[in-house]
Specification:
Blueprint: H1 2-41, H2 47-64, H3 67-89, H4 91-109, E1 119-128, E2 150-152, E3 161-166, E4 172-179, E5 187-191, H5 193-198, E6 207-213
Helix pairs in contact: 3-4
C-alpha cells in the first residue's frame, strides 16, 4: 500500500506541475491575443467591427465583475481549494480522486458508443457537405457545423452513432446521423468536412465506404 501511496503522490505532484505550465501558457496566449486585438483595432477598415466587439467585451467584463459573479467565483475557488487540501491530506480522498480522474480519461478516449459489436449495414460511395450547406438547419433540427462529426443518411435513425470505414485506406470515423440525404447521384452518405478529413476522402471528394451500426437496421 505504501507503494501505491507513493505513486499517487508522484501523480499529484505531476498534475501540479502540469497545471502551472498550463497556467503560464494560457497567460502568454492571452497577452498575444490582446496584442493582436490591439493591432486589429488600429486597422481603419475594421473599425466598425472592432468597435462593436469592444462593446461586447466591455459588457462581458462588467458581467464578470458583477457582485453575483464575484460571489460565484469565490465559491468555486473555495470549493477547489478545499478539495485540494483534502487530496493532499487524506489518503482515501486521493485514491478516489484518481479513480474518478482515470475513469473520466478512459471514457473520454474510449466513449461508450465505441464499445461492443458493430453490425455491417451497407457499402457505397460517400461524399461530404460543401460550404454552401454550412450552418443550414438539418433534418434533426440543429444547425450543420462542418467541424462536428456528423453525417446525412437516407434511412438510418436521426441521432444514432455509426462507424464509417474507408475501404481504400481502412481509416474509420464515428459520426452521428443528424440529417437526411444524399438525394442525388449514387452516394449513400454525406459526411461533415471534419469527418471526411478523418478518413482521408476530402481530397478526392468521394470514396468507397462501409457503414456499421450498433443495431441491425433494414436498408
Amino acid at each position: 500500500m505504501r507503494f501505491i501511496d507513493n505513486i499517487l503522490e508522484i501523480l499529484w505532484n505531476l498534475l501540479g506541475v502540469l497545471g502551472k505550465v498550463a497556467s503560464f501558457l494560457l497567460s502568454v496566449a492571452v497577452k498575444i491575443l490582446a496584442a493582436f486585438w490591439d493591432f486589429l483595432c488600429g486597422v481603419r477598415g475594421l473599425r466598425r467591427f472592432t468597435d462593436r466587439m469592444n462593446v461586447f467585451f466591455r459588457g462581458t467584463e462588467n458581467a464578470w465583475n458583477s457582485s453575483l459573479a464575484v460571489v460565484f467565483r469565490e465559491g468555486i475557488s473555495g470549493f477547489f481549494l478545499h478539495l485540494k487540501n483534502l487530496i493532499e491530506t487524506s489518503r482515501r480522498v486521493r485514491i478516489w480522486f484518481f479513480i474518478m480522474l482515470f475513469t473520466v480519461l478512459f471514457l473520454w478516449f474510449h466513449p461508450p458508443y465505441k464499445w461492443g459489436p458493430w453490425h455491417y449495414h451497407e457499402s457505397g460511395k460517400a461524399s461530404y457537405y460543401g460550404s454552401g450547406f454550412y450552418f443550414n438547419r438539418t433534418a434533426g433540427g440543429e444547425r450543420f457545423l462542418p467541424f462536428r462529426y456528423t453525417a446525412a443518411h437516407r434511412t438510418l435513425p436521426i441521432g444514432i452513432t455509426v462507424m464509417v470505414v474507408n475501404k481504400d485506406n481502412h481509416a474509420k470515423v464515428y459520426v452521428r446521423i443528424n440529417d437526411r440525404g444524399p438525394f442525388s447521384g449514387n452516394r449513400i452518405m454525406d459526411l461533415s468536412k471534419s469527418a471526411a478529413d478523418e478518413i482521408g476522402i476530402a481530397g478526392n471528394g468521394t470514396a468507397d465506404v462501409e457503414i456499421y451500426t450498433r443495431k441491425k437496421y433494414g436498408k
